[in-house]
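Weekly sync notes, structure subgroup
Attendees: PM, AL, DS (notes)

Item 1: joint prediction request from the bench team. They want all three components modeled as one assembly rather than separately. Inputs as received:
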Amino acid sequence: MFGKIARKIKVYLHKRQAESQSLSSGSHYPPGKPVSVSLTANLDRVRAVFSDCADIVIREFKIGIGEQVRAFVVFVDGMVDKTLLHQNLLKPLMLDARISIPNQGLNRQRVQEMIRDSTLTIADVKEIADFDRVMEGVLSGDTAVFIDGYSAALLAGIRGWETRGVEQPDTEMVVRGPREGFTETLRTNTSLLRRKIKNSNLKIETMKIGRQTRTDVAVAYLKGVANDKVVEEVRRRLKDIDIDGVLESGYLEEYIEDAPFSPFATVGNTEKPDVVAAKLLEGRVAILVDGTPFVLTVPCLFIESFLVAEDYYSRPYYATLIRWIRFLAFLLTIASPAAYVTLTTFHQEMIPTPLFLTVAAAREGIPFPAVVEALMMGIIFEILREAGVRLPRPVGQAISIVGALVIGEMAVAAGLIGSSMVIVVALTAIAGFVVSAQSDAASIIRLILLALAGAMGQFGIMVGLLGLLIHLCSLRSFGVPFFSPLGPLTVQDLKDVLVRAPWWAMVRRPRTLGWHNPVRQTPGQKPDPPADAAKEQFHE
Amino acid sequence: MLEGGKITPRQAIFILVISRLTIPLTALPDLSAPPANQDVWLAGLLAAVPTMVIITPPLLLVLRFPGHNLIQCSRLLLGRAGAVIGLLYVWFFLQVGATCLRLSGEYMTSVPMPETPLSAFLLFMAVIAASAVRNGLEVMARMADIIFPVIAGSIIMVVVLVSKEADVKALLPVMEEGLSPVLHGAFTTSSRLVEILALVMVLPHLNMAKPGVVWKIMLYTVAVFTAFFVIIILAVIAVLGPAQAQTYTFPFMSLTRLISLADIIERIEGTHLGIWLMGVFIKVSLYYYLAALGLSQLMGLKTYRPLVLPVGALLVVLSIWLFDSLPALYRIIQYQIWTPYALVFISGIPLFLLVVAMVTKKGVKQP
Amino acid sequence: MKYPKLVAAMVIGLLVLVSLVITGCWNRREIDTLATVMAAGIDGGPGGRISVTVQVAKPGEIKPPGQGGGGGGQPAVAVFTSTGATVFDAVRNFALQAERKLFWPHCKALVIGEETARAGISPLLDFIDRDHEPRELMWVLIARGQAKDIISAEGELEKITAESIEKLVKARIATSKVVGIRLYEFRKMLGGTGRDPFATGIELVGAGEGKKRLKLTETAVFRKDRLMGWLDSDETRGLMWILGEVRSGIIVVPAPGPAEGKVSLEIIRASSKLKPEIKDGYLTMTIEIEEEGNLGEQMAFGDFTKPELWTSLEKRKAEVIEREIRAVLKKAQEEWAVDIFGFGEAFRRKYPREWREMKDNWRDLLPTVAVEVKITAKLRRVGLITKYNPPK
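Output from the run, pasted for the record:
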């Protein structure tokens, strides 16, 4: 039912978008007014465009000796590498040009050529005639050079601004594995990817999204591995976006996801280049957004939340064990308060007697019903967590002391909360951190299950779980069933779900994603230690 | 997602087996059907043979008309009269669905939650089934992919855990009353495989609906089901004793309650409740879907979706109205009533249609 | 357009759920509104009335929350007695005196008074079997005297008497001199053809200073569902030998050879096989018992590891076993004609056709069954000392 309504809303949004398309310039700029031949006219226009923009620098100067050509550069202060600007742009134009440009018979057209081809010692120089696109370039950090009598401007790519370095991401810590993380700069991010996959099949397409912000967005995929239909679908959905601004990839996520009302994210995100590279190699598509280190990957499967990069770098047995711990933790975090409430208020017969007596003793004299107790503790925990996340670190410690001592210890001592409930809530909270990718969905499911359990006991929990299963099975992410390879079951893919098979055994890419180029390595590469005779040689 | 959704042969097998297993998980009426002693498991094992016989007519019929299901076949063959037959089938699906729905509610009110009104369980179950039906066959098939391993694993776990209490001697003597009651039992057990009708209804949605594949699906369904059925019956008889087993309302549940290992692995009937609810959910959704699908085809609708709510309401009403009490429900699923009734739908009508098709030489001839 | 509708649907759904949670009192009962029945006793009352006694745990006294003591003085259980026309009626009448609702799933033991058991026990069990709360895993015990007294008794080491009873029953393997029967097993024996049930006997014995203590003593033997009589320890073990239920225990035999004194032989494992036979209309039952044990103690001097003494020990052990078996056979099979051994079942399994004619007059046939006992008793180990030398 929700799916259908969601689809209708989508269609409605689409229509509205089409109407507004004419008002704004979408992703593609219609050819605007060209750059004027007259420098003064250009100057006036630039001044008009950038009126009241304190960070715009316009520098007028003259080229050559004798018959001088007037020119000016425009750039945004702080977005340009000043050293490069001075050494490789202004100095050649203002000083070196005197030597290199012969001052007799100065053909204006030739001056442009000379400057472009043999004066500016900058790699990335574009000649653009469209005034709006020049302005856009300037706003993106390029430096525009306008030259008198020349109906195009030169855009020099000497961007340079303060950026955060490549650091280890806080959200995805690893013990073993690359420690670098994406940064806020799109170019750095694409280069991080390119450094992992040195292959021309790694395609990176860019586009601009956002009426006001004109944010650079890059779509990366591995040609021949990624499903072309998925890539095309990603392009289509991105192009359809008409939005004021894109400040984080989360903005785009909400426009391109398949199930906008689902608590589950059908678009994945990560901060680690090695994770994105691994996903590209499995046939997924990555969407990089300028200004955020979080890169989106599609199609996204439910099971990806349980797979961590480190699984693939450590030994298979332990990786498998930890993977099962994660499944268990997810179950615990969504169901343990509900299970506790069910067991203590509906199905006391299902608790073994010694445990029953202990729990009963702990609940003796507690004033609230177990559901209310669980709800209260759940909410208190969320408050504590939120407070802990937002506060500066030193204050955060105070929060944990208050939380642990006051809420935990004293509430139990005062007989407001049963001690077993505190344990259950603590377990729920800690287990929630294990599968952090699903922690927000888990909170919602936990609440629903708790309510159902409070109303109908185990029947309620089963109804809730079945509903959850229906929902999970009906979701799709860019055409791929969200809950695969579990539902629909793809037995071959379970080698990387229920266990983490050794690398040499994972000959094929996941069937659900990379089915049209399935083989990723030569089969039969299981290491074969030398026979005894050969071993002897080592000891010699 | 839509009716155009495809299901794979494995998913079909899973759905059919889950659906067939739900009744043995609770009511297990076969225990008091002949031979009604320790030989019931033998009857269950031998039932595979008559099963393969009685499912032949509907399969042959549908395979003559590729891309059509049972109701469409009957309309093709008989026109308006076919619509009446179609309506009969819709009624049958509704009845099976309503019976299982009611049984799920009766189970809940008999065992874990006697003070809760029956209608609350029926409503919740119907709503959740309606949501599955709306999402379509494909989603149900995917759920079966997940639910089947859970059910199968839990059954095996329960049987292993309870095996400590089992007394193998309770299974002796084999064929105490001779062969004929066993064969009779095999026959009555085979008539419970209503799921064949589900298969011939969803055949057009099947990936690779080649005759060979379809036969194989049926073969595997019968084999897998028989294996679990025999395991369940063996465990029930060996632990509870052949005479006592018949007196239990929900034998397998009572069996689960007997598990007690090391004072900690005990009181795990929650497992039974879980798998039974999952199984009955699949069964109710399946027949709910079939009824809605059949009705929409009879009414000439493009999609069954507008019918989901009305059929669901009908299902709930029927489940309350058809049976007065739990014993009344049990009386209907006892072999005396059920076997002839179900056989008319499983074999009788399809056989008639098949003969009509052969006489009028309609459809593709199968080798 | 649709958006407000969706929000409305969500809000309504949430409201329904919340109202269900708040008001859904159908089956919700907080754990502290329950009176947990740990053991129950059923006695007959005057005028055919049923009297039920229950022992209810007081969780607060068992494990006081927090560290602050509290428990100690107060008993951990409370005992209530209620009467009614039927068992269920009596159970419901508890509501008149117990402040909390009785909660049965943790009931460990069902004790039935001797008098009541003589009058027939199956009508009393129906409620326990039918109701969803009591579990069929509870132990069935027959009280010597009133069940009420057993239920009201205090345990010595365990705070809850029901736990004491359960532990006593579970410890039966150490001696094999008492039986342990769970409710479903009792029901199976009651309902099976060619089989009579038996159950554990329990009584209060004096423990000095006016104190009384629970003790498992004898085995109650039923004919159909009526209590026939009691088997003493040796007879009980005889029954266990036949059923193959002996797990451990001590067999005391006189020392072999020239030495004087007694030798304890520990049973390590034992199994039995019933082999029925019908020959020329005569019923024979061969009981084959294989036993294995260790030399556990010798209160006599000498080296019993010598082959001839070793064999004679084994032989003496076999004699004791046979004596125990014969004792129970004499009492149950010959005197009472009750089939607690499952001889009838064994015949039915082997001779289903003949059984059809036999089953109606099985009670008359049972005493005529000739029982042959074949015992293979072995000694395997001697412990840490091989022989015991007399002091010089």
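Discussion: Chain A has three domains: 39-156, 186-300, 316-480.
Action: AL to compare against the crosslinking data before next sync.
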